[in-house]
Amino acid sequence: DVAYDAIALIAQGLTREAATAQLEQKYRDRADVTPADISDCFDDIEELTAAGAEHLAADLNELKAILLQV
User: Fold this and answer.
1) Phi, psi of 22, deg, nearest 5
2) pLDDT tens-digit series, residues 41-58
């Protein structure tokens, strides 16, 4: 639930800080969701996003090289 909510908030254009504040408010009554959990979730999102961007850049460079050979 938290990860889906975090992704949705980021997709809406909220900053990490604003999204974190919203999630902390939403999950304040749940003992199984701590501020550290929310922070870890955003860390994971940022890590996966960066990895995806690196992969995309490599794919684009490969495509560029192929097109230059034609």
Assistant:
1) -65, -45
2) 999 999 888 887 777 777
Q: Could you tell me the two tokens for 31?
A: 């003992």
SS3 38: helix
CA 21 to chain CA centroid, nearest Å: 16
Token pair 């684009």 is found at: 60
Residue 30 sits at φ, ψ, to 5 deg, of -105, 115
Q: What is the pTM of this model?
A: 0.74
Report whether pLDDT(35) > 60.
yes
Q: How many helices (DSSP H) and strands (DSSP E) are in the chain?
A: 3, 0
